Amino acid sequence: MLRKDRKSTKKREGHREKTVHDSVSHAKDLNKGKTISRNQIELKNIKPVSLSSNIITTVEAILASLIWLFVAYKLFEVKTLWSNIVLTLTYFICCALLYIVRLMLESKRLYGKVAFESCFYYSQKTKYNLRWSVYIFMVFFALINIVSFFFPTPKFHMTTIYIASCYYLGYIWTTQYKNDPIPYRHMETIFLIITMISNFIISLI
């Protein structure tokens, strides 16, 4: 009986050791996979920003601005809840599209591929300067309000758009990727300035 108990005890201990070993090896594999996915390796020879990329981003900014102006022209005078919702969605969708274009172009240039993992990694490596972004926000917000004070337009109350656009300008112009300014900042700059002066543009139509 004692021998049988000893054998059964050894079997249980051996089974436990095997289970623990399998769990540890599985955890190591998972951690290894996570490390590989998080530590994306940049290309050894990173190409400079190409002329074609600048053209693409400029065209993208112009298209986003035209879409915004078209929607604003149709809805600025409506002044209902649904018109405000559509304007807000249009604004943020255009900003998101510009941001996604940058992610894709930079992912291709830095990592040699366009994938969710590489785009996400790039977005995690970008940092912005809060203090200077606030300074830029305050300067643009003050300027646009001074212009609006001397040249008022009756089309639409623009304060919310002024705040969003000025803040995003500060964010874009202080954002860096590994201590280097991000490229294609003209995309958002063109679009955001157009949004801030859209009231004046529509008033002239």
Structure explained in plain terms:
- Helix content is 78%, strand content 3%.
- It has one domain (51-204).
- Helix 2 (51-75) runs antiparallel to helix 3 (81-111), helix 3 crosses helix 4 and helix 3 packs antiparallel against helix 7 (185-204).
- It is an all-alpha fold and 205 residues long.
How many strands, what sense, and barrel or not for the largest sheet? Answer: 3 strands, antiparallel
Measure the end-to-end span.
100 Å
Secondary structure: number of strands: 3
Quaternary assembly: single chain
Task: Describe the structure concisely for a colleague.
This protein is mostly helical and 205 residues long. It has helices at 2-38, 51-75, 81-111, 116-125, 130-150, 159-174, 185-204; strands at residues 126-127, 176-177, 180-181.
How are the elements arranged and paired?
Blueprint lengths: L1 H37 L12 H25 L5 H31 L4 H10 E2 L2 H21 L8 H16 L1 E2 L2 E2 L3 H20 L1
Antiparallel strand pairs: 1-2, 2-3
Helix pairs in contact: 2-3, 2-7, 3-4, 3-7, 5-6, 6-7
